[in-house]
User: What shape does this take?
Amino acid sequence: ALDVARTLARAPGIGEATTAPDATARLQPIAEAVRRENDVDFVVFMSADGIRFTHPDPTLIGQHFRGHIESAVRGEVSTETYAGSLGPSVRAVVPVLGAPGARPIALVSVGVTEHRIDALVRDDIPLVILGAAGALAVACGAGAAVH
Assistant: This one.
């Protein structure tokens, strides 16, 4: 999520789009395409005061972002676990700078819900167990061969 957010914040045209009168029309298609292509649950562009330009649930566009944005408003990158509008998630919030060293003109947050993380971990458990069993078998075989 952090790499996706950083890439978006620095992408050509994003800063200009966030300050345009039609920011949502410009950014929503980008946010949704990036969300789908990167297997994240949300890509939210917002004003520097936290008003959403984009959201996977269009009814939440124009509302205040749920989460901590203070660090990003100061120009810093932040990560957190927070229970937002889609439930608990791990997210990054990155400033969109109009010029290097300038105050942020907007912010972008990218995140993955804990539900998705749990599902990914559950799906990988059989592979981890199988890999561990295989490693144990090789180690036991190597140990027996040494004796």
